[in-house]
């Protein structure tokens, strides 16, 4: 989880405020909105979920503009690292927890969502801002395994788009992107 967090943080640090209006592979979200989504779910809700808290003290609401805060990227780096530290403990993966407050689910399922938030939205933001997301083979395998187990359900709930065909010879990370409804060859406009 720490490596996934660091991977996303590297991309976030490379985004300047002038790029907030750029398009992303998530058609409904521009860069600024996607940044706020990533910060909320991997820096606020993901942290509380790993601690098995329904709401953290001083929790902010979804839709909060983290990028309007001073030193927002470094504040996110600290929040993301704290979330990774919580999810690095075996007890975070045991039992049940909630990410959104709309019901408890197995902690393993929620932990996989947090992993996907860092890596999938990290990739979305990297592509939208002309950066490269560096995902090692171990992270790619963990992401692929998680996505393969929940892709159909995620599509039913509108979390993932339709599967994008990716050649079987493509990297495991590109195949994970395709399962999650992302086109690995997406280019910013």
TrEMBL record:
Q: Domain named Mycothiol-dependent maleylpyruvate isomerase metal-binding: which ranges?
A: 3-126
Q: Which domain of life is it from?
A: Bacteria
Q: Which residues fall in a coiled-coil region?
A: none
Among Gene3D superfamilies, the record links this protein to:
dinb family like domain (1.20.120.450)
Under the heading Pfam families, the entry gives: MDMPI_N (PF11716)
SUPFAM superfamilies, per the entry: DinB/YfiT-like putative metalloenzymes
Name by which UniProt lists this protein: TIGR03086 family metal-binding protein
């Amino acid at each position: 989880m720490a490596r996934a967090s660091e991977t996303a943080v590297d991309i976030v640090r490379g985004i300047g405020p002038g790029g907030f209006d750029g398009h992303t592979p998530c058609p409904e979200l521009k860069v600024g909105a996607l940044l706020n989504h990533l910060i909320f779910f991997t820096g606020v809700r993901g942290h509380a979920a790993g601690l098995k808290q329904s709401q953290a003290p001083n929790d902010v609401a979804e839709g909060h503009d983290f990028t309007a805060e001073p030193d927002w990227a470094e504040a996110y780096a600290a929040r993301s690292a704290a979330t990774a530290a919580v999810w690095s403990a075996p007890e975070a993966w045991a039992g049940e927890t909630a990410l959104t407050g709309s019901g408890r689910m197995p902690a393993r399922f929620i932990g996989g969502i947090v992993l996907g938030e860092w890596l999938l939205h990290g990739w979305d933001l990297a592509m939208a801002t002309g950066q490269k997301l560096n995902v090692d083979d171990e992270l790619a395998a963990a992401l692929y395994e998680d996505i393969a187990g929940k892709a159909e359900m995620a599509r039913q709930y509108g979390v993932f788009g339709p599967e994008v065909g990716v050649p079987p010879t493509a990297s495991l990370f590109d195949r994970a992107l395709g399962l999650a409804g992302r086109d690995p060859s997406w280019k910013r406009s």
